[in-house]
Amino acid sequence: MRSDTLSYAGAEEPHFLEACTLCSKQLGHNKDIFMYRGNTPFCSQECRQEQIDNDEARERRWKVSSKKSKESSKKSATVQTGTLVASN
Ligand SMILES: [Zn+2]
């Protein structure tokens, strides 16, 4: 065990990869990390999917409130987001 974990504050260490964004479960180097939108890590597909669902729901609401159009029947907005990072 090295003691440099204490000196991480203020360093350029990418702290956003430390824990699952949804459940805050710690992400280990040997475990698969499920990325979403490039820089949002999740511990599992389930957690990521929940975040995607949340985001889509929020975006849909935002679009509806900012744009009072009646094009609510558009179903082509399904986007495959997220990249499975299984290396290392
Ligand atoms: Zn999680």
From TrEMBL:
Domain of life: Eukaryota
The entry's keywords: Metal-binding, Zinc, Zinc-finger
Zinc finger (FLZ-type): 15-59
Annotated FLZ-type domain residues: 15-59
Gene Ontology molecular function terms on file: zinc ion binding
Region Disordered: start-end pairs: 54-88
Single GO BP term: regulation of DNA-templated transcription
The protein, known as: FLZ-type domain-containing protein
Organism, scientific name: Deinandra increscens subsp. villosa
Taxonomic lineage of the native organism: Eukaryota, Viridiplantae, Streptophyta, Embryophyta, Tracheophyta
